[in-house]
Amino acid sequence: MVVGIVGLGLMGGSLGLALQNTKLVTKIVGFDHNLSHCEEALKLSLVHDIVSFSEIKQCDVIFLAIPVGGIIKVLQELKDIGEKTTIIELGSTKVEIVSSVPASIRTNFIAAHPMTGTEKNGPSAAIQNLYHDKIVVLCDTDNSGDLHKNRAIQIFSHIGMKIVFMDPASHDAHASFISHLPHAISYALANSVMGQEDPRSILLLAAGGFKDMSRIAKSSPQMWSDIFRQNKVNVLNSIEIFEQELEKSKKMIEEEDWSGLEAWMSKATTLHKIL
After folding, report:
1. Which of 75, 89, 244, 248 could be 64's S-S partner, Cβ–Cβ 3.0 to 4.6 Å?
2. CB atoms within 10 A of CB 22
């Protein structure tokens, strides 16, 4: 099986490394509009070769590891692929992407969201075990051909992922809480500090808690603004619910309702009985 990866940053590069440890794949080729990414990916041995986009179309499986807006554009350029070529996109939103798939290649298409990543980007951010023991969500597979669905399941299983099936609307609603809202909060926390008169003095005190919560504020603004745009309604809903919870804590602190505040925080700790 020859695999082509479009986008050689964190997700695409890590995928290239993971696939090299399987017996399913005979060759991994890559394409990226950023030429420096292509050079770096080859240097780091993330892929075996860099090819043109037309050559990517000849692969058995094409992974789209690019920003969500780019996925929609590239899908329009894949209308002429063969019926046995599988397209697997790895975007963080699903409703808009799934609805944009050209009818001629719908059976070739797999919508997947690996629930993994870091705040870093580019080929140098690639990690060997980024996908191992993580969850991947597959959406709307009833409209995918059996060959392509089984191929995706086989590949994700071989790189150590746990597979969950979900409809696109449920995925986007759930992802808004578990992935998109935390990024919005992290950016807001970072800007709250950076908006102060002397942020450097404040950051001298930064320890584990602040660093943990602000870590993902280093993520690509371009990529995340695109995700927020595509999942606008769900992101706004999750932000509103978060604001309501924050307002509860604010009111209890103002009214010195310390027992109520403690009970509110105790409820939050029950999350980790599930997580």
Report:
1. 89
2. 15
Is the distance from CB of 30 to CB of 59 less than 8 angstroms? no
Q: 8 vs 15, 130, 199, 222, 272, CA distance in Å?
A: 9, 14, 35, 16, 34
Amino acid sitting at position 146? D
Kindly state whether residues 34 and 153 are assigned to the same domain.
Answer: yes
Structure-block tokens of residue 24: 């399913």
Query: What is the tens place of the pLDDT at every residue in 176-200?
Result: 999 999 999 999 999 999 999 999 9
Domain boundary among 166, 182, 201: 166
Burial class, 12, CB count within 10 angstroms (exposed 0-12 / middle 13-18 / buried 19+): buried
Range of the domain at 62: 2-166
pLDDT, tens digit (0-9, with 9 covering 90-100), for 45-75: 999 999 999 999 999 999 999 999 999 999 9
Q: 191 and 219 in contact (C-beta within 8 Å)? A: no
